[in-house]
Specification:
Radius of gyration: 27 Å
Structural class: alpha/beta
Low-confidence stretches: 322-347, 395-402
Number of strands: 14
Largest sheet: 8 strands, mixed
Strand order of the largest sheet: 9-6-5-10-11-13-12-14
Mean pLDDT: 90
Distance between the termini: 30 Å
Strand content: 5-15%
Helix content: 40-55%
């Protein structure tokens, strides 16, 4: 083992981070991302608890146990997700149905067992070879960086279900290396089982649930779980992560048709397009192409279909499976095609044919990129920008410690939209729930841009039957004629279907939107159940609309996965995690003080606690923050996470050669540069295409990651074999830090959260400098 320890740690870390990412993808789709955050955050506490178990049960610290422990880790990784998905967990009924608390506890134990066993193995290696910690920690972090790439490649090439099981193979290879000659058969058999499980992964992970229509196609990669619904001969629907929906309209590709056969749309922008002799149209979140079809029908001459999910654009261009390895299942018995990995179907009419191949029209430019990042490359370009519920609640693949932010709905976003519009351009943005915040943001954005008579540049419509609002933003002051005919004739007969909220008619003067415009959101906030404050790029959590004043235990009887009605779901989940860590996990980490043997002094105990909190706080915030610059695709987030981990690994390797003051000074200075300087760099370079933006991000990230990899091995070299205890404390603090820092970000923004993390590092440096306390 002495000769293979670095390989073993690297393989272990590949699996640990890969499992975390793939499980995040699975459970955010099946349970909604906030509940996935709760479940996986608590499960990952198992890593630290494994280190604590090694400290408390010294008989575990035997090299002969390493192989079997790693074999059991791989077995637990294979069994966890299928068992949890079959528990029948209903998060909405956690309080009303006591059995759900038991099921949630069981789910956390099933998932946490993998991390617990891995924690024992890691702590064992760290303890046994503590003098080589700079190189061991380098192997750990670089392996984690490799695990990020490994998981994403698996999900995209084999599908998320198959990746769920293949991710366990590296840790089983580590078990094979670590096992004695006669024990190698166990991990060998489990590896064969992992491969077999991956072949039958779809039925193993497919949890039957009611769908709104027959599902004729499924695809599940690192970006999203996609289902196609068959609504009948004339329409289909794309469902993303069991939450977001986008329609597909059947079209034969023939534009030579009478007006009586024109398509009708829920929100018509024909009149806006008709304002221009040659209209440049941007669909912001084009989804199933309904916006593009409307623009083509209305005669737009240049159309940009911008969609962040590349597979949706792939389906619209080439069909449902062309160029991709199928990872799909059918609820239909027709057209089944046997693949090597799963039962799959190829629909009789693929998506591109069903929609008339409109994305192949020479007027259409298909863009697989974040809309903000794309638009920032243009000024005065688009005559009409159209956004139809462009929203996602996915946690993407950035790990369980990431929540969904949305930079499409911030004050700075509306400034970008305004600058991207032509001198006579219009923007139409529809949303079911966010409109009060959007109006607040529009007012702030135009005010900061120095626009005069702001109220004349926008109007807000209510579509009661569709339960939606629509915002019309105009570069030029709106005329009454355009306000009253932009969507449809605002006649009394149409009032139940369409009417203005701002400027409001006399009978609707008291509606919330009109009051926000007339009085300001601050004067209306206290009387409303939802958060009206405008979101910014520093606090982009537009979906977190809940307020603490609405919390009551009665509301827990049925918890909806959204905050649109004002219940502070995300904050409640964070508090639950914090309570469990503080009340249960941290006291467990004090138990060794009451046992026999050598003990950590308080200073090193607190040191490992602080650097655990600080590292995760910085990681979480930078992942969230830099998705604005790079774009929230799975690939860009992978680059951010991999850069930080690999840089930290290299930093660990050289930690002995750099003085303590320089290490912590480097971390704090770089965090301050990120807060006060780098935003000007990223703003000025935001017009670059994706790959140059990724390179810039790597350059900005690497030095910080390099220094952040040093505090842990520096502390280890001081405490020696007590590192198993320090590792346990560090693991618990990591979960605490990642959760607590998001509460800080919700309340005060990313920059304040980063400053808090810098403060934690300064406190850690003060402890490390107090040599007599160690």
């Amino acid at each position: 083992m002495k000769n293979y320890k670095f390989v073993v740690i690297t393989l272990m870390s590949i699996s640990i981070i890969a499992l975390e990412i793939v499980w995040t993808r699975i459970f955010s789709a099946e349970f909604f991302y906030t509940f996935a955050f709760l479940t996986l955050s608590l499960a990952i506490l198992g890593l630290g608890l494994g280190g604590l178990a090694l400290r408390l049960f010294k008989s575990l610290n035997n090299e002969k146990y390493l192989g079997p422990i790693l074999s059991l880790t791989g077995l637990a990784a294979l069994a966890g997700p299928p068992l949890v998905l079959r528990l029948g967990l209903k998060f909405s009924s956690l309080v009303s149905e006591p059995i759900m608390i038991f099921k949630l506890t069981l789910a956390i134990l099933l998932l946490g067992l993998t991390f617990f066993l891995a924690g024992i193995a890691l702590a064992m290696l760290f303890r046994s070879f503590h003098k080589e910690m700079p190189r061991l920690y380098m192997a750990d972090l670089i392996g984690a960086g490799g695990g990020v790439l490994f998981s994403i490649i698996l999900m995209n090439q084999l599908g998320t279900p198959a990746a769920t099981f293949i991710c366990a193979v590296p840790i089983l290879l580590a078990a094979l290396i670590s096992s004695s000659r006669y024990m190698k058969v166990l991990p060998g058999f489990i590896i064969i089982g992992a491969i077999l499980f991956s072949v039958y992964s779809v039925p193993l992970l497919d949890v039957p649930k009611p769908d709104r229509a027959p599902v004729i196609y499924k695809h599940w990669d690192a970006m999203a779980k996609i289902k196609i619904y068959d609504y009948g001969d004339e329409s289909r629907g794309i469902n993303v992560d069991n939450v977001a929906n986008s329609g597909l309209i059947r079209f034969d590709g023939n534009w030579d048709r009478p007006d009586s056969m024109r398509f009708n749309f829920g929100i018509e922008v024909n009149d806006l397009i008709d304002q221009f002799d040659s209209c440049t149209f941007l669909s912001l979140g084009s989804g199933g192409g309904g916006d593009v079809l409307q623009a083509l029908q209305a005669g737009a001459t240049e159309i940009y279909a911008v969609e962040v999910n590349p597979f949706i654009n792939h389906m619209m261009l080439y069909g449902d499976s062309s160029g991709y390895i199928p990872q799909i299942v059918s609820v239909s018995d027709s057209e089944k095609v046997e693949t090597g990995a799963a039962d799959s179907i190829k629909p009789i009419i693929t998506t591109n044919d069903f929609t008339g191949n409109i994305y192949s029209d020479p007027r259409v430019n298909v863009v697989s990129e974040d809309a903000r990042a794309f638009m920032r490359r243009y000024n005065n370009k688009f005559d009409v920008i159209y956004s139809l519920s462009s929203n996602t609640w996915a946690a993407l693949a950035s790990g369980s410690f990431a929540l969904a932010e949305n930079y499409l709905f911030t004050t700075e976003a509306f400034q970008d939209y305004w600058l991207a519009l032509s001198d006579s351009g219009y923007m139409m943005m529809e949303h079911q729930f966010y409109m009060p915040r959007l109006v607040s943001e529009v007012i702030d954005a135009l005010n900061e841009l120095g626009v005069e008579d702001i109220g004349s540049h926008f109007a807000v419509y209510d579509l009661p039957q569709a339960r939606r609002n629509a915002l019309l933003l105009s570069k030029r002051p709106l005329t009454d004629s355009l306000r009253y005919y932009a969507l449809d004739d605002l006649t009394p007969e149409l009032y139940p279907y369409l009417h203005l909220l701002y400027p409001a008619p006399d009978s609707l003067q008291d509606n919330l939107i009109n009051r926000i415009v007339q009085n300001g959101w601050q004067n209306e906030a206290d009387s409303e159940r939802i958060n009206l404050s405008p979101c910014t790029d520093d606090k982009p959590f537009v979906a977190q609309m809940g307020l603490w004043k609405n919390f009551s235990f009665d509301n827990l009887e049925r918890v909806l996965p959204y905050e649109f009605m004002g219940f502070p779901l995300s904050k409640v989940i964070f508090i639950i995690i914090l309570i469990i860590v503080v009340v249960i996990i941290l006291p467990l980490n004090l138990i060794p003080y009451f046992t026999k043997g050598e003990k950590l002094k308080f200073a090193p105990w607190l040191y490992f606690f602080l650097i655990g909190m600080a590292y995760m706080a910085v990681e979480v915030i930078l992942i969230q923050k830099y998705t604005l610059f790079v774009g929230p695709s799975v690939y860009s987030i992978a680059v951010i996470l991999v850069t930080l981990l690999v840089a930290s690994g290299i930093g660990s390797r050289f930690s002995k050669k750099i003085s303590n003051p320089l290490v912590f000074l480097g971390i704090v200075v770089w965090i301050l540069l990120d807060i006060f300087v780098f935003r000007f760099i990223t703003n000025s370079l935001s017009g670059l295409t994706m790959y140059p933006r990724i390179i810039v991000t790597i350059i900005l990230f690497f030095p910080l990651g390099f220094f952040m990899g040093m505090p842990f091995p520096k502390g280890t070299l001081r405490v020696g074999q007590l590192i198993d205890w320090g590792f346990a404390v560090n693991g618990a603090a990591s979960v605490l830090g990642s959760t607590l820092i998001l509460l800080v970000a919700f309340a005060f923004g990313f920059n304040i959260a980063l400053m808090a993390a810098a403060g934690l590092y300064l406190l850690a440096f003060a402890l490390l400098s107090a040599k007599t306390s160690w």
